Amino acid sequence: MILVLTSCGSAAEAERIAEALVGERLAACVQILPMRSVYRWQGAIERAEEWQLQAKTRAALAERVEARIKALHGYALPEIVMLSAEASADYAGWVAAETGEAGEAGEAGEAGKAG
Question: Which of 10, 21, 89, 102 allows an S-S link to 97, with CB 3.0 to 4.6 Å?
Fold first, then answer.
């Protein structure tokens, strides 16, 4: 399992990218968090309110997730950081099922929602 991080300049853009990744089964879950960034861009120190996306997916989908983020993102150079992650067997199985590896989606049900 991997965790893919990217940051967006607006909540609407973050929602649009998250919806596409989950809707296209490229990620099982995408969390959106508001944050403040300080970074160097074109020789100047910049500050911005941004929204970070944390997408949970399979390592096998990394290139497709990266391509989809680049296609949807408004930044000239979007942050795309991929981290290997270990998860409980149940959660990793859910991520695999929701991203198409195990065929049909898992049966967590309302009482057992994952996220």
Answer: 102
Instruction: Indicate the DSSP class of residue 2.
Output: E
- 22-25 contacts at long range (C-beta below 8 A, 24 or more positions apart): 24/68, 25/98, 25/99, 25/100
Closest CA to 3 of 35, 38, 29: 29
**Digit-coded pLDDT (tens) for 29-69:** 999 999 999 999 999 999 999 999 999 999 999 999 999 99
